[in-house]
Amino acid sequence: MKKIIIAEDSSVIQNLTKKILQIQNFSITSVKNGQEVLKKLDAEDYDLILMDINMPKMDGMECAKQIRQLSDPIKSKIPILAITGNARNYSISDFNEVGINEYIPKPLNFDLLVDKVKLYTEKDD
């Protein structure tokens, strides 16, 4: 079973996303900020990170940057999908620069979300 971290400070979005992905047979870990993402990654392996950009303590951009700098070659390459309500503040090149693979705008289109998650988690199979 593929393991996904959802980093999202809105519990409503977090719970919805979690339910939808669990129905698709993904194992989900939810956290509220970038620091918690790094802690979880340190402890175990994941296949994908869904990352809100605006979070307290450490935002998604900074977190993505730190993940890409990890010394573990597998963890540093984990696919990161940004979820953001204000993508217009960032360009695709801003996302690419910190190592975010793709972004999904809010309000979330869950069909699109599931498609993207599957796309990025099926690459190794």
From TrEMBL:
<keyword id="KW-0597">Phosphoprotein</keyword>
<dbReference type="InterPro" id="IPR001789">
    <property type="entry name" value="Sig_transdc_resp-reg_receiver"/>
</dbReference>
<protein>
    <recommendedName>
        <fullName>Response regulatory domain-containing protein</fullName>
    </recommendedName>
</protein>
<feature type="modified residue" description="4-aspartylphosphate">
    <location>
        <position position="52"/>
    </location>
</feature>
<dbReference type="GO" id="GO:0000160">
    <property type="term" value="P:phosphorelay signal transduction system"/>
</dbReference>
<keyword id="KW-0902">Two-component regulatory system</keyword>
<feature type="domain" description="Response regulatory">
    <location>
        <begin position="3"/>
        <end position="121"/>
    </location>
</feature>
<dbReference type="Pfam" id="PF00072">
    <property type="entry name" value="Response_reg"/>
</dbReference>
<dbReference type="InterPro" id="IPR011006">
    <property type="entry name" value="CheY-like_superfamily"/>
</dbReference>
